[in-house]
Write a structure and sequence with these properties.
Elements lengths: L1 H21 L17 H5 L4 H14 L2 H5 L1 H12 L1 H9 L2 H5 L5 H12 L3 E7 L9 H5 L5 H21 L4 E4 L7 H13 L7 H7 L5 H23 L3 E4 L4 H18 L6 E6 L5 H15 L3 E6 L4 H11 L9 H21 L4 E6 L3 H13 L9 E6 L4 H9 L4 E7 L2 H17 L1 H18 L1
Parallel strand pairs: 1-2, 1-8, 2-3, 3-4, 4-5, 5-6, 6-7, 7-8
Bound molecules: flavin-adenine dinucleotide (FAD).
């Protein structure tokens, strides 16, 4: 019954998309001031009626705080009581269906094609991550390297899939915590923080540190080899890779390794992107240092600017350990850091052609408008290849699609993979949409408006 409904509505979606294309939704002659971030035709033209209904229902569900707070328990209980196949079909009709692009290449392909008709590209993220406190399964398996080697194979496959689906615009995203035990990564982080050095590599620092055992050093060596193997695969497929930023107790080591990779691989073009969390007090200084280092040493940097996803956890940890809170005191300070960082990167990108590129990875409409205004002020054109925009799959299409429609480089970051693997990600998405209710509310209302127009 459900699958019939999906099929019927997907075919009506195709007709609708064709109508939209005929009425020339793509309009590159619009000025930045004329871009409308409330156009339901542009934002949701690619969605079927069923998908619009599902989107509306998901945002409605996310607005019930008590439900979202207990989501992890609810999902676990439902899976046990309902059994795998019923649970999966409910997930496909709700959270998973809305926020995840599919399980494999065959499910991703039609989505890539539909989005590309609207000028929007997909960044593929085969979901894998772990954390010291939460991922007990991975932590206890730390002596067993096979899980990280398995993740390496999945990542290589992800790079190949992205290349097959998107060709030279292929981008994949990875998290380093999928390739090393979180405990060892945390120790490595401490080692780098104890003896910060631009002259010594991450491995050299680790090998001299009294914090790292011989066994752990071997694990670190394998970790660095795995990451290099992934970047080589990306290079071979002429793609690009985003390295995600994670918790601050990993991030100093992550950042150091990404810079080393950039120095090695970002020579003829940008392959490796680093992520900068603007909620951290040190971020603006870090960006300024990285820009200076790249200019001195002659390598390129891809910047992905985000606000940061682990704020509650970081603050709680700072209180527990009685250390300084690494996060800006308020949202306005984070935003100021984001906007200042964007300005400084753009200035250098303009003055040093082909050396710097920046992704505005944000759902914040004011930040997107700020970026557009700054580009106008600095006389940077949308097709100069200096700036791109990205939002998460299932969120804020009302930003991404209008940008793509006027010729900006616009992307959706799409997680994919088996349902079980994505449950933690889905809980985070629901929680984020609860936290940023005003934005989710706009998404919900626009879904509703689009649905009404289709009737
Ligand atoms: C393409 C893409 C890639 C991403 N990759 C990463 C990644 O690698 N690592 C990562 O950590 N995150 C990543 N994120 C998530 C991102 O960091 C944010 O959590 C998310 O996008 C919400 O921020 P926003 O800019 O979209 O805007 P908004 O929705 O306006 O941000 C609102 C949020 O800002 C938070 N906030 C930030 N600083 C403060 C503060 N000082 N005081 C109070 N509230 C504050 C609030 O919690 C609130 O929920 C990514 C996001 C996107 C779109």
């Amino acid at each position: 019954m459900l699958s019939k409904l999906i099929r019927r509505n997907q075919s009506s979606s195709v007709v609708f998309i064709q109508q939209c294309m005929r009425s020339s939704v793509l309009n590159p002659s619009r000025t930045n001031d004329e871009i409308r971030f409330d156009s339901i035709t542009t934002a949701y033209g690619y969605k079927s009626k069923y998908e619009l209904y599902r989107g509306w229902a998901v945002f409605k569900l996310c607005s019930y705080t008590s439900l979202v707070n207990r989501l992890t328990q609810l999902l676990n209980i439902s899976r046990t009581i309902l059994g795998r196949s019923v649970f999966e079909s409910i997930m496909r009709s709700t959270l998973y269906g809305h926020f995840v692009a599919g399980t494999d290449k065959s499910e991703l392909k039609p989505i890539v094609e539909r989005l590309s008709q609207h000028g929007v590209k997909l960044i593929l993220d085969y979901s894998m991550e772990s954390d010291v406190a939460t991922d007990h399964l991975v932590t206890t398996a730390q002596s067993n390297h096979s899980i990280y080697d398995e993740n390496l194979l999945k990542s290589l496959k992800n790079v190949q899939t992205a290349s097959e689906l998107s060709g030279s615009s292929a981008i994949t995203a990875i998290k380093f915590t999928a390739f090393i035990s979180p405990d060892v990564l945390q120790k490595l982080n401490q080692a780098v923080e104890q003896h910060p050095s631009d002259q010594q590599s991450l491995f050299e620092l680790a090998s001299k540190s009294s914090l790292i055992s011989k066994h752990e050093l071997i694990e670190i060596e394998h970790f660095i080899q795995r990451i290099n193997r992934i970047v080589q695969e990306v290079k071979q497929h002429q793609g690009r890779v985003f390295i995600d930023a994670e918790q601050s107790y990993f991030q100093t080591a992550i950042h150091k390794l990404v810079l080393e990779l950039q120095e090695l691989y970002n020579r003829d073009r940008i392959i490796v992107y680093n992520t900068y969390q603007c909620y951290r007090k040190i971020t603006l200084k870090t960006i300024q240092n990285d820009l200076a280092r790249a200019k001195t040493k002659g390598f390129s940097i891809g910047f992905k600017l985000v606000r940061g996803a682990y704020m509650d956890q970081e603050r709680k940890r700072a209180v527990e350990l009685n250390t300084n809170d690494p996060i800006h005191p308020n949202f306005a300070a984070t935003t100021q850091c984001y906007h200042q960082a964007f300005k400084e990167i753009l200035k250098d990108a303009k003055n040093h052609p082909n050396q710097f590129h920046v992704f505005v990875a944000s759902h914040n409409e004011d930040t997107v408008k700020f970026a557009l205004r700054t580009m106008d002020e600095m006389n940077v054109k949308r097709n100069d290849g200096l700036v791109a925009f990205a939002t998460l799959f299932g969120m804020c299409d009302y930003l991404t699609f209008p940008l793509a429609a006027v010729g900006y480089d616009a992307y959706k970051l799409a997680p994919y993979g088996p349902i079980d693997r994505l449950l933690p990600y889905l809980t985070r998405r629901a929680q984020e949409n609860r936290a940023i209710f005003a934005k989710a509310e706009k998404d919900r209302q626009l879904h509703y408006k689009a649905l009404r127009e289709r009737n």
